[in-house]
Amino acid sequence: MNWSISFEPLLSWPLFGLLVVPLLLLALVGLWFRQRGSALRFIALLALAASLLNPVFLAEEREALKSVVALVVDRSQSQDIGDRTKQTDEALAGLQQRLARFKQFDVRVVEAGKSEAADERTETRLFSALEGVFRDVPPSRIGGAVMITDGEVHDAPAGAPEFNAPLHALITGNEHEKDRRIRFENAPRFGLVGKPLDMTYRVISTEGDGAPVDVRVSVNGELVSVEHATVGQPMKLSVTIPNAGRNIVQLGIDREPGELTDANNRAIALVDGIRENLRVLLVSGEPHAGERTWRNLLKSDASVDLVHFTILRPPEKQDGTPINELSLIAFPTRELFVEKIKDFDLIIFDRYQHRDVLPILYYDYISEYVENGGALLIAAGPEYAGENSIARTPLNAALPAMPTGEVVDKAFFPRLTDLGQRHPVTRGLDGSASEQPHWSRWFRTIGVKNPEGEVVMKGADNRPLLLLDRKGEGRVGMLLSDQGWLWARGFEGGGPHVQLYRRIAHWLMKEPELEEERLTADGRGMMLEIRRQTMSDDPGPAQVITPSGKTVTVKLEKAEPGIFTGSLRTSEIGLYQIGNGDLTALAHVGPINAPEFSDVVSTENKLKAPAEATGGSVRRLAPSSTLANLAGGVALPSIVPVRSSAAASGDDWIGLRTTDDSTLKAVSRVPLFGGFLGLGLLLLAIGSMWYREGR
Description:
Keywords: Membrane, Transmembrane, Transmembrane helix
Distance between the termini: 49 Å
Number of helices: 13
Organism: Mesorhizobium argentiipisi
Protein name: Glutamine amidotransferase domain-containing protein
Transmembrane segments: 12-33, 40-58, 672-691
């Protein structure tokens, strides 16, 4: 209860002064000259002035406010190591029990490190969580904070935190912990496919430098080498990037006896493989309306080096022109098809026919090139059905279909087959979604019989139009019409010739994204997303092996023809192994080599500076002889409420600040000169003055 006196004048201050000041001066003059009755006149004047000032007696009823105390609990993944979780739970329960005895504290508990956001899982951000607790609390009401953590805090300030109250840290773990870890020192983000990539790494141990360690090097899950590293020294590493797109390079070391965890015994680097320019040989049999369609497309692709020849003067064309007067160059058949054929990633025969330009033996070389992993595309025209068809050469061993000799000149809309709707080369072609495709017609189809491989597009009378086949280790494509240039010229609105031709070429050159059977996975935040590309109707569920070794089944749902997807919300950061049928994939969830696992040894050092700057303390929870107050196996200090100017920590206690803030609940108001009491006092003073003046 607080008491006070307040004045509530009945007159305004100017009017009060105008009335009272002259009377006060007269009374003071009377007192100065010691006139008779001047003292009574002065007292009567004071009584009149007091009644006009209207003094009021106030009695305030107030309720003391509580100091806000934050208990910040570290629930990051490093706290799962050893007995740290148990120590944390016991310390939290003990602190809550002790703080419950003090009514002057408002205890708020916040757990950090369990957010769904990946960046909050990979770093221990206790001060960000603490800032959220005190956001709505006035500085005068902050009593302090107690952190239960292993000390590996990644947002600790270098000095005092923003609040002016004691900060105490209780450290889980033990003093003499042992750990060994590996990390990349230098890992380029990009590398050329098939070329060595230089990297550096380091093995770090709490026991010092010098000991030799075997390091397993894996690329995309396959062990490629075992390196010998010296602990503490930067080590050089050279790996060959096998695939275009994302590649995962992993380093691993064995767990040491007595080591805290093996979670940081692995290091990951993601390297995007970039192909060197693909070399394509385009051979046009003769000039025709669509000859430049393939050339323009391939020349516009920055990743392609194109060599293009057009047979303008076949051997049978003899017009008597002297050789030295011809501006044409001779077709370098031996150089292209014998000496350098292995240098090409793709050979395209565009309306080519056998005219003895190539010796018959060279077709065997081309077939062998395909069998050994090369790529061949036949863009067929009427000549494929004629007497000089390349199907009548030894190249027929590599071809997916033999001609019937029939050329169908009939208007038609190219359409996708059921297989083509799922095949990555033709799936989702712009304009293919409707029954009548939104592209122009073609007018010629080359008849074939007994097609092998996959028929992904059909032409007139449902005849095969686009064939894709595998021969040995290589691939062959056959486009059974020379009318694709109509799409390029915009006839009847044109069509997706660039999209189609580019997909055909890149499928033949084994672009991973265009594989019919492909399993990929990617981590987005803490979500593992799985994508299965397949020609089957149901690939079945995917099996996921988590970084901790658990196996989880993920159902794959059909997203579009040939595409099945699934997702898994995860709680672990690290490398996941995904399997479906004979296919496997790797995916990393969360940031690569997250700080949460870079150093897992508990420490007092990171929180020492901010704690000491506030008058707080940092101490371990593991029992010691200096702390007698034990709570379930952990050494908890006593809690002492302290004033703002008092010390906030001792050998076996921690102090939390109390506040002087309060809230006003009620006010009792009693006017001192109000009612009969005030009137009686005023009459008594004036009556006494009148009585004295009357004598």
